User: Fold this.
Amino acid sequence: MTGSPGFTPDTVLRGMSLRRRVGLVLLGLAGGCGAGLLLLLWLTEPDPLPLRTRAAFAVLTAMSTCWAAYALWALIRMPLFAADRVIAGGLALVFTSLTAVVTLIVAVSRPGAVALAALTTALLTVVAAASVLRRALVRRKALLERLSDPAG
Amino acid sequence: MNRVERDARLVVRAQLGDRRALAELVQHWHLPLWRYVRRMTTNADDVTQQAWAAALGSLPGLREPGRFAPWLFTIARRQLMDQLRHGYEGPERLEADIPDGRDDIVEVLDRAQIAEGLDGLAPPEREVIELFHLQELSLQECAQILAVPVGTVKSRLHRARRRLRDLLIAKGYES
Assistant:
């Protein structure tokens, strides 16, 4: 039997670039953190907002959530190697920490149950991001040890 | 460095995020995997690309890098099974006293001749000849890919060799 494949190894590897994966991680984090902060600002407004302002908050929050959901959907369908996970964990820690700081500022300036709940959630996401980063570093270290050990 | 060691190193490097190692791994197995699928179906390009997509998606979690080849072929075989299911129906007869080696057939037939006769075999027999003689995987690796005991692999090989020999003799090759 003769013949050759109608595709090349490059076809197989298409879409596997680090830039694309990191881009999706950034999109997901920006969308998620953005949506959370918009919602926080909206819900902690001391005075009732005009209808158009509420509509704008709702649309922006929905758009940010959609971008975050799209990034999550795409990331689930692509392999994340050790380096990707370390980068993703580091970025997640930075984004969630910044979000927690902003949430803290809002909670101090506009105290209340909503602000407190938001601050608790933000701190939990920081812990989750730190855990993701730690696991990624442990996995990377294990792989490096395996690579340096010929018997491994 | 043998094939298993080479694959294991490339897999670990790829799992770390080394894209060159990943490309090298795909390059090594691009043609063998396609040829295996091509023996079993006319829709080889689609099935092979689906197999690669599934394999690369699961590669970061592969726990035994040294078993990359049987793992990859198992994934490809799963993609093939829906198309080939009818060829695998019915009970399988095991045969006793079957030799393990490749020599008995290789002495008589070269790879090109084996490849030429494969089209006349039933899918399970074609598959086992492709994996064992043409891809040069071990009996254990074949058993893992085919999800059957080693004894069943030997039986299939035995039957396939006999049938292949008959087919090639009918085509004019000397026994």
Notes: Residues 51 and 75 of chain B are 6 Å apart (CA to CA). Chain B touches chain A through 34 residues (CB under 8 Å). Chain B has a mean pLDDT of 81.
